[in-house]
Model the fold of this input.
Amino acid sequence: MADIAIDNPGGVVLLMGNEAIARGAIEAGIGVAAAYPGSPTSEIIPTIAAVAGKRKIHVEWSSNEKVATEVAAAASLAGIRSFAVMKQNGLNVASDFIVNLNMTGIGSAGMVIFVADDPGGMTSSNEQDSREVAKWFDNPLLEAQNAQEAKEMVTWGFELSEKVNLPVFLRGVTRLCYTRGNVALGKLPSGGEKKAFFPEIWDMYNPAKSRFTAGPSQVAHKNLHEKLKKARALFEDSPFNSYAGPENPELLIISSGVCTSYSLEAIEELDVADRVGALKLGTVWPMPEKLIEKRLLSTQKVLFVEETDPFIERSVMEFAAGRLPEMGGLAFYGKRSGHLAPFNEQSADLVIAALADILNIPLAPRDPGYRKKAEEAMALVPARPINMCAGCPHRATFWAVKNAIARDGRNGFVCGDIGCYSMAFAAPGFYQARTMHAMGSGIGMANGFGSLGDYGFDQPVLAVSGDSTFYHAALPALVNGIYNQSNFTLLILDNSATAMTGFQPHPGTGMLATGAPAPIVDMEGLCRSLGAEVRVCDPFDLEETTDAILAMMQKKSGARVIIMRHICQLLKAKRKIPGECKMRVDDEKCLGDSCGCDQLCTRIFGCPGLMWDGAAKKAVIDEAICVGCGLCADICPAGAIIREEARP
Done:
C-alpha cells in the first residue's frame, strides 16, 4: 500500500482507485470515516485506517451501512467532515436513513457518500445502478472517470455538500475502484485541532427548536428541491464536465465515468474525431441543463454510453421532450435503441460497434485464421469452475447439512445468504441453498417458512448466516423468529472474519478497523439472551455436526441456533497457523472406478486439494493446495484417504 498520507503536493504516485478515493477524503480533512466491508469498496477504509492515528481520524467498520451512514451524519451535525462508504447493495440498507437526512440537511461540515456499483455483478448479488437512487432521493451525484478525478471529486464533493447542505453521492464502479493510475497529490490539511460540537442543545425558551428533527414534510421537501436547484447551477460551471470534438458534430456521445474512456478510445480507434463530439458529464444529477442544451442543439444524433441503466439517456430525453419543438429532430441511440445493453459492463469494443453502425462505417473483419487461433488458445486454459477454498469449513457444514436433511427424510431445505457460503447454491455447497437474496434474507425467509404450520407445512427449514452477516442483518430476523415463535434452525457460519471481502474485523473478532483491540460481542451469549436454544459445533467434526443439525431440525417449535465455528483456512495462512495433519491416498485401498463410490471425493466432495489422476485412475492429494484439514478422510467410504502425522 502506498504511503497515503505523504505530504508532497504536486507529487505523482501510483494508486489504486480506492486508494485515490481515500487520499481525496484525507485531503478534504475528514474527521470520521465509516463503512461496512463490501467489494468493490473494501480497500478504502483500511487505507484511511492506516493513517487514522497520524491524521486524527475516527475510522470504523460499522455493523451495517445504515449505521455507518448515521455515524458519519452525526459527525457532520457536530461540525466534522465525514465520509461514508458502501457498495450498491449497502445503499439499500442505508436508504431509510438517507431519505430522512435529506429532509433535515446536514450540519456545518460536509458529508460525502461513496457508492460503488458492480456492473456485471462480479462480486455482488445484483448489478444495481445507484444513480437511480440518488435521483429518487434528490441527492447531488458525481461520477469519476479515473483515479485522479476520483480523488479530486471527493474533495470537491465536500465543498459542494457544505454549499447545498446535503450529503453528496460519488458513484464509482468496479473498474474505477480497482484501476491503477498515476495520481497527482494535493495539499494535506494542517494538523489543526478539530473541535466537535452539536449546536442543537435544549433551550428552555424554545424547547422545540431543532433543525434535525421531523418537521412539516412538505416544507422540508420544498427546501430539498431548492437545494437541488442550487446544485444544478453550480454544476453548469463544474470543471468535471467537458466537451471535445467539432462544434457541430454529426454525432454527439454523452457519457460519464469510465465509459468516457471507452468512448474516447472508440473515437480514436475509428478515426472519427472530426465527425463525433464527446460530452463528458462528471456532475450526473441534477443534470447541468444549459450545458446539455447547448450540445444537443449542435447535433442531430446522440449516443449515450453509460453503465448500467439508461440513466443519463432517460434524463436527457426527458429534458429534450420539454424543449420541443426546437429539439424535436434529434435521434437518440443507446440502451433504448439496442446499440448498447442495459446490463453488464461496457467496453471500447461495444462502443466501436455502436459507432460503426450509427455512422455506417464498415468494420473490417479479423483475419479468418484469428478465430481458429483464439479457440486453440482458449483450449489451453484450464476450466476454473467456482469453488470454495481447500479446507473451507463451509464445505464441511454443507456436507453435514446434506446428510442431515437426507437422514431426516422430510424434504428439508436451506434458505441461503450472501457470503463465501453463497456457493451453497452450486456444486461446492452440494446445491443445498434453495433461496438466495440479500444479506440476512436467509433467516428472514426462514421466519416466513417456519410460520406456515397452520397450513400443513412440516418441512424442516434451515437458514445460514455468516458471522459478520449475523451482526449486520440477521439479528432483527432472529429476534422476530423468537418473538413470533417461528420454527427454524439458524446456522451461523463463524469463520472469524468478514472473509469474502478481505478478512475485515467485525463485532465478534475483538479488533477494530485500525487493528486496535475491541470488546467481543459474544454471539453465543447474545443468542441465548434472546431465548434461543444454542449449540456450538466444529464443522470438521462431521458426526457431531450432522447429529446436531438433525436433532435441531426435528424440534417442533421455536428458533434454534447452531454456531459452526472454525477459522477460515486463508485466515489461518495469514496468521501462519499450521494445518492439522498431512494427507495421502492409499493406492491399495483406492480402487478408482472399481470402488463403487463413483469418484465421490473428486466428483462430489470437490475439495481443490483432491485431484483425479486420469492415468492411474485414482484420487491423489495436491500437496501444493491441501491445507491438511483432514475432512476428506472422513468422507471416503473406502477409508483410502489417510491422515498422517500432525504438521509442524
About this structure: The first strand starts at residue 12 and ends at 16.
